[in-house]
From TrEMBL:
Annotated Pfam families: tRNA_edit (PF04073)
Coiled-coil boundaries: none
PANTHER family named in the record: CYTOPLASMIC PROTEIN
Span of the signal peptide: none
Source organism (scientific name): Curtobacterium citri
TM helices/strands, residue ranges: none
UniProt-recorded name of the protein: YbaK/EbsC family protein
Residue ranges annotated for the YbaK/aminoacyl-tRNA synthetase-associated domain, each copy included: 42-162
InterPro entries: YbaK/aa-tRNA-synt-asso_dom_sf (IPR036754), YbaK/aa-tRNA-synth-assoc-dom (IPR007214)
Amino acid sequence: MPTLDRSPVLVATGFLAIPVAQALVGLPSDLLARIEAAPIDPDLADTAAFSDAYGYPLEGGANCIVVAGKRGDEVRYAACVVLASTKLDVNRVVKRLLDVRKASFAPMDQAVELTGMEFGGITPIGLPADWPVYVDARVLEAPEVVIGAGLRGAKVFLPGRVLAAALPNVTVVEGLATEGLATDAG
């Protein structure tokens, strides 16, 4: 079983996508002190593969899913963060939050282009400043979650509550996710 060589996140900025590193530099030091990063095998970036290979509990993983919804000619994007052991409620909750008729996972090429991150490594840290970030309330209850680092070759580790404290445009949403098999979509 491969091991995780975790470091304080600012020491590990070489493992992070540029928008992620730039966003982290602006965080208060008390929050930064609670965030770590580690390089991983990029082939093991997907949640289930990472959990199996590194022995990290699946319920400790959080997925960041880029969604798109349309209202007239306007496309609205958002990021949704849910525990890996749950499933994002796109058709009911996300659609209502974005105030659109239809919402779905953003196409991979759009998600990559708009975020400046690699698919399979998209994280809520460093997203476009005008995007809402919806975080399922269960994520905040987790003592530690692992999220993407913007690149497939690394992961970020932090207490779930830090996501709400550290990121702009965060809305904590009860029931953003339902119980069930999660989908990696970012």
